[in-house]
Amino acid sequence: MRFWTALALLPLAACASMTPADFHAGAPDMRLEDFFNGNSKAYGIFLGRSGDVGRQFKVAMHGAWDGRDTLTLDEDFTYDDGERQQRHWVFRKTGPNDYVGTAPDVIGEAHGHYDGNAYEMHYTADVKRGDGTIRLDFDDWLFREGENVVLNNSRATKFGIEVGQVQLVFIR
Q: Between the CA atoms of 50, 122, 114 and 90, what dihedral angle is there, to the nearest 10 degrees?
């Protein structure tokens, strides 16, 4: 009986999900070009579906804002097992609070919006897994918690089912 009750409540839960507007009064603003322009670093973990820590990693980053509408962000990942990866993001500011991002492993474009100190971005990416890749959808949230700290939680789903999360702290 609990299964059917939970299933019936799913549409209501979807309506109650948060949006960046819920953080309108938060400060400082989560403008990508403000926080990620210059050098920063991040520390993160991958959490599996059951909450177990799959991998830990560090990221060295350099961002460059062109002063108009484009932020490039180079990320150098080092994983706890010694593996290294790189990602090159290009974010275009498409409105006062909106961005579109591209990266080699992102399918199409990432679409993001900030309000106050919160930024939400949706995208699909091919994630390396073993000798192959798996295509996942991401709901990425960043919260600016001061001038030099951003917290990040990203939900990864496949066919609408959560398969894991990525949690990071960015530091300038």
A: 120
User: Per residue in 160-170, pLDDT tens?
Assistant: 999 999 999 99
CB distance 31 to 39 below 8 Å? no
Answer whether 70's CB lies under 8 Å from 89's CB.
no
Structure-token pair, residue 66 = 């062109």
d(CA 11, CA 37): 39
- State in words which class domain 23-171 has: mainly beta
CA 152 to chain centre: 6
Q: What is the pTM of this model?
A: 0.87
Q: Are 71 and 88 spatial neighbours (Cβ–Cβ below 8 Å)?
A: no
Q: pLDDT tens digits for 102-121?
A: 999 999 999 999 999 999 99
d(CA 144, CA 152): 9
Peptide bond into 104 cis (omega under 30): no
Domain map of the chain by residue range? 23-171
Q: What are phi and psi of 151, to 5 degrees?
A: -100, 140
Q: Which of 35, 10, 31, 11 is nearest to 20 (CA)?
A: 31
Token output for 79: 């994983």
Question: Token pair for residue 170?
Answer: 């960015």
